[in-house]
């Protein structure tokens, strides 16, 4: 009981001193996919789950606050490449997908 009170006091002190990060929205931002110079960008706002990439997809930019995984299949079942927030990657055109 005494150790629980100590932990609660330490957590309160850390919060007061700004040592604890504030809660953030889980899915803030967007994923942007470039296909060709002749079509607009595909933007996925606050994406969740699995999304099939456009057939002509060329690059993917992760502008969310979470890692995004690019998969070679359209159902997000194969292992993939993880793209950290603020980074991007070339993607294979055709049947790929991404998940958040």
Automatic annotation (TrEMBL):
<feature type="signal peptide">
    <location>
        <begin position="1"/>
        <end position="25"/>
    </location>
</feature>
<keyword id="KW-0732">Signal</keyword>
<protein>
    <recommendedName>
        <fullName>Secreted protein</fullName>
    </recommendedName>
</protein>
